[in-house]
Amino acid sequence: MKELLDIVRAYREHVRPPISSALATVIHVEGSSYRRPGARMLILDNGMWFGGISGGCLEGDALKKAQYSIATRQIKVVRYDTSHPDEQSIGVGLGCEGIIDVLLTPIDADDPHNPIHTIESILSTRQPTALITVIDSTLPHFERGKVYQYHPQHATNWPTTLVHDIQRQLDMRQSTIVQYDDLHAFIEIVLPPIHVVLFGHQYDIVPMLEMGKLLGWPVSVVMPSHRVTQKIRSLAHQIFPPDQDVPYDEYTAFILMAHDFKADKHNLAYALSTNVPYIGMLGPAKRRQRILDEIQSESKTLPPQQIDRIYNPLGLDIGATTPEEIALSAFAEIKAHFSRRGGTSLKFRKGPIHPRPQNTA
User: Taking the chain, what is the end-to-end CA distance rounded to the nearest angstrom?
Assistant: First the structure.
């Protein structure tokens, strides 16, 4: 999501007459690749670009090809094959060994439905969203190179098979390529950024806020107004006073870091009363158990599935000691939780790093 935000921001700041632009989108990957389908790069005809489609090895060539697409107003798909050590191949010397298809789409600044505008329209949503990028089409309501947002209520004239495939990918939370007799498209599932809510007011919340800013995750704070500094105000997504209900959804994580037994107990009781899927808490396990024992003795016994949401001690085991390292450890664990991954070293992972769903093309 952060890359989409950066691309939209760059488009707003840099693309104005006489500057033209194109959008490069990774639509298909076979084998290994640094970036996955959905990675994007905004390319300007003056040579500037924003975002990326690889680790830096393909951007130069994509720039040249995109400038040609801008000049000719032609949409095209470029294939980069890095799977063979061919000296004539663009892939020679690259670290990845795979095939990458990139869709180059010139952007019509006068078209209110151009891909940038469609992408911009989903940036504030807190629900998984499906974007349909049309690679080729003979259907009158699907224009080649355009990006469409899927709305069930507005898709009544869409092909039934396409709607079925979109719903399936939304359920799986995975993007894919589809190809029918009259439509070739990239179904991209865009998930909202993780919203982290910090309950605390000590100095160690600042590295947490800075880590969220780096990742493009909104990070909010629950703290007394008189403890809010200018630094916190500049970094926080939202600031809530204590005892106010905090909005949350299935992509929200709470972190309890008041460094005060009574406050953490109060905040944990509140967190457990919600359906927030991740509750992290600083401090040792012994302290957590004492807090839980008191909460259960004062109210009611909590079922195991409620307690399973608590991550304490907080973070992955990387030997973190400083506030900055603890923030790194915490955010890495949160990412692993929402990605349904174990957070272990990739050295020991069996199979590919990223899932490779079967295309329906």
Answer: 26
Sorted by where each starts, the structural domains of the chain and their CATH numbers stand as 2-111 (no CATH), 125-190 (no CATH), 195-339 (3.40.50.720)
CA distances from residue 325 to 199, 283, 296 in whole angstroms, order as listed: 19, 15, 33
- Residues 216 and 233: their CA atoms lie apart, in Å, by 16
pTM of the full structure: 0.86
Give the position of tokens 């037994």.
261
pLDDT tens per residue, range 116-166: 998 998 888 899 999 999 989 999 889 888 899 999 998 889 999 999 999
Q: How far apart are CA 15 and CA 333, in angstroms?
A: 38
Per-residue pLDDT of 67-84, as tens digits, reads 999 999 988 888 888 766
Helix ranges restricted to H, the chain: 2-14, 59-72, 115-120, 160-172, 205-215, 230-235, 261-273, 285-298, 304-307, 323-339
Residues 158, 130: contact at Cβ < 8 Å?
Answer: no
The helix (run of H) or strand (run of E) holding residue 101 is strand 98-107
Tally Cβ neighbours within 10 Å of residue 337: 17
